[in-house]
Amino acid sequence: YSRGELTAVEDSAYLYLGTEEGAGVTVDLSWSLDRAFPYYMRIFGDRARLSLGWREATLVGGPAGDPVSVGSGYKKADAFLALQSDFVNASSGRGRARIDASDALASVDVVEAAYASIRGGGRTPVEAAEEIAV
After folding, report:
1. How far apart are CA 134 and CA 119, in angstroms?
2. Residue-wise over 31-64: b if at least 16 C-beta within 10 A, else e?
3. pTM of the complete model
């Protein structure tokens, strides 16, 4: 992690996550560093790569390896409207929230494991979060 800004919390983090099956994920986050990448997430698989960008989403794979547009990108206003709608529906009993208390606790478990890994200098397992009655 980094404390490049004068904040009470880390402003950047780089995590390597691995599954029991051997799949690996790297997460590189920053609140303060403007990297000006055209994408905010890239997923690499054995046969394809998916890039989710601010202006478009592309899939690269197959024998030709040519990029194919699969989406129009991230639109902040649309994301906030969907978040607001999800909150209103869940809080009024018209549905379940997409992210519930179990999801929130699971993310805290990952953060705690990352800190434990820093302190211990090695890998730290993350146990599956238990379901929570809301």
Report:
1. 33
2. eeeeeeeebeeeeeeeeeebbbbeebbbbeeeee
3. 0.67
